[in-house]
Amino acid sequence: MLEAAFQVVCEVQPSTRPDLMAVRHQIGVLSRVAAAFLVPDNHLGRATISSVAVAHEVDQMGGRSIACLNARDRNILGFRRDLMTAAAYGVDEFLFVYGDRPSVGARTGDLNVRSMLDELARFNEGGSASSRLRGGVTTRLGAVPEWKRAADFVFVQATFDVGALLRWREENPFDGEVYAGVLVAPSSSRVRKWATDLREVDVPDTLVDALDKDPAAGVALACDMVTAIRDSGAFDGVHVIPGVRYREVAFRLEDALS
Fold first, then answer.
1. Pairing state of beta strands 7-11 and 36-39?
2. Would you list the DSSP string of 135-164?
3. Of 193, 179, 195, 185, nearest in space to 230 by CA
4. Are 60 and 24 in contact (CB under 8 A)?
5. Domains along the sequence of the chain with CATH
6. Could you report the average pLDDT of every consecutive run of 10 residues in the chain (258 residues)?
7. pTM
């Protein structure tokens, strides 16, 4: 059994087609370890099924959902619409992000994460205490801006360095829940691409070498990181990004956390 105080939040890969079968399969497989599911919103600047719709699907399957909403693709009116729609469907937790560079078109420019938190607060003021919506933000491994402390929870940037996470946590007290990011490396070729594209993530050479020898090395490292973060007692949980390796992650992590 998983420890009740430590939450594993698994990110699902959203569908770029009008079909929820693959998402449902991820939810079913990962439910053996996940306390909640994070549903991305137009991930990597590509159109996907609405995160609110998928979050509702998670709830219908008996899971807990956190719907990601990005500032890039909405104006204030659209954001208010999404909050109302989510509340009507019983989706009550959100992760607010700025959004990756769009593959088509441009940013609307109306919203940013700070204004989304402000709008959420206004929305909650007009509702009942029992229907309050919760909003979270992301942060890099640096000082957390004061305005982000109004969020209910924080997702910390994914890294391969547990020590860096622990140092960050010691230097950044936060009243809400804090989830450490754990990225599952699927292959050596993908990790080499990350080393070039993800400037904020320090990819160790030892990981690349390990993946060259064993494609499952990324899963092993990620699961070891999850248990190390849990055992540290410094975080409320982890945000695991399993990607295409979600099956292996579910089975290995179930054993590691039992």
1. parallel
2. EEEEE-SSPPPGGGGGSSEEEEEE-S-HHH
3. 179
4. no
5. 7-256 (3.20.20.220)
6. 73 90 95 96 81 94 96 92 94 92 64 96 81 94 95 96 96 96 95 86 92 96 97 97 96 93
7. 0.92
